[in-house]
Amino acid sequence: MKSFLVTVVIQGIPLHLQVDTGLQYVLLYRDSLSSALPHLRTEGEPRDAMIGRLQATQVNLPGVQVFGQMP
User: Rounded distance, CA 22 to CA 36, Å?
Assistant: First the structure.
């Protein structure tokens, strides 16, 4: 498994995330995200999802920016 750290700004709040390159989607933990962003806004209806054997809730997050250095 390979992973790396990225800075992501979600709705104006910068967060450092460890990204697992083995996943097709970005997986954020609700409890951690709620404590960092107590007024988090989502768009649309939450949907049940499966990521491998993980049961998850899929939501759309507006206002997400990913930063990094270009090679």
Answer: 25
